[in-house]
Amino acid sequence: MNPETGNPEKDDRAGDTRFYRFRLFVAGDEPNSLQARAVLARLCEEHFKERCEVQIVDVFEDYRAALDHRVIVVPTLIVEAPPIAVTIMGSLGDGEEVLAALGLAGKGGRP
Fold first, then answer.
1. Residue 101, H or E segment
2. Is residue 21 within 8 Å of residue 80, measured between CB atoms?
């Protein structure tokens, strides 16, 4: 949320102040799950700093959460805030594609 305007959707690409909440569904220490965790951690550090919250859900430990969120493929990243309705499936191997899906950069571009 932009403290100046109170607008939760502020996004001027250079000074995005929105808060992001991610829920990443993984399957234990499977290679794609480990990669998804690492890519999301890197993206959060490089682009969101302290403007994000990440919840990791291991479907081996909490399959009910996966059912509740209709997750049938892991890894799956659900963006819960801001309300942009994005679900990304796969290992998140291409961080630029993840940023593009979030509307933060075009493929090959920087936010």
1. helix 95-101
2. yes
Spatial distance between the Cα atoms of 70 and 25, rounded to a whole number of angstroms: 11
Q: Is the dihedral of CA 99, 101, 103, 106 positive or negative?
A: positive
Q: Which of 26-35, 45-54, 60-69, 92-101 has the lowest mean pLDDT?
A: 92-101
What DSSP character marks residue 73? S
The reply to whether CATH 3.40.30.10 applies to domain 20-94 is yes
The confidence score (pLDDT) of residue 95 equals 84
- The pairing of strands 20-26 and 52-58 is parallel
Contact indicator for 24, 37 with CB cutoff of 8 Å: yes
Distance CA 80, CA 92 (A): 17
Spans of all domains in the chain? 20-94
